[in-house]
TrEMBL record:
Protein name: Uncharacterized protein
Organism: Nonomuraea monospora
Length: 162
């Protein structure tokens, strides 16, 4: 197998895409694991921006910073707030106000290397939560920190014109 497009060598499950897809499948069966879904998506797309949409990277970077600053419970509350605003009965749309205090996505990316990648997540009997949900959450926190640090190492961002 060749190196992943984020610069990481493949792990036992393959490239980061293989890890990401396996995590998404496991989340469907494990509501406790699903708590970190937004973190997983933001980290994956920020480490592999060609697999997402460029127009969303800034908000994903801000979501990631929000999570690192405020924690998983605040992130889940913000998700619920956004879903309520975006449901069919509401015309309010997406609320960027909670994310505005966070740094915009730096230009010149993506970073060539991340200190931690999906390919380094341990996997075994019990899947990604082989040693508990809290430990899984800690690993995702480390992955989120590595992603934020790599992007911020590129320099300051350009404020979005949202």
């Amino acid at each position: 197998m060749t190196q992943c497009d984020c610069g990481a060598p493949p792990g036992p499950l393959g490239t980061c895409a293989d890890y990401y897809n396996t995590i998404l499948a496991e989340e469907q069966l494990d509501p406790e694991m699903y708590r970190w879904h937004a973190v997983v998506v933001c980290v994956y797309l920020l480490q592999h921006p060609a697999r997402g949409h460029e127009k969303h990277l800034d908000s994903q970077f801000r979501w990631l910073q929000f999570y690192l600053d405020r924690g998983i419970d605040a992130t889940i509350r913000l998700q619920a707030h956004q879903v309520a605003r975006n449901n069919r009965r509401s015309s309010a749309g997406y609320d960027m106000a909670p994310l505005e205090p966070y740094a915009p996505l730096p230009s010149g990316g993506p970073p060539a290397h991340f200190a931690t990648s999906f390919c380094e997540l341990p996997y075994g009997e019990g899947g990604f939560v082989l040693d508990g949900h809290a430990t899984y959450g800690n690993r995702l926190h480390t992955l989120a920190q590595a992603t934020e640090q790599a992007w911020k190492s590129l320099g300051p961002g350009t404020p979005s014109r949202g």
